[in-house]
Amino acid sequence: CVIRGCVPKKILVYGASFRGEFE
């Protein structure tokens, strides 16, 4: 998995998941 392609996507996905869980 390429860091520049995989990490950013994971961060966005995790960020959306955390936001949904917080709300």
TrEMBL record:
Please state what the protein is called.
FAD/NAD(P)-binding domain-containing protein
Which organism does this record belong to?
Nymphaea colorata (pocket water lily)
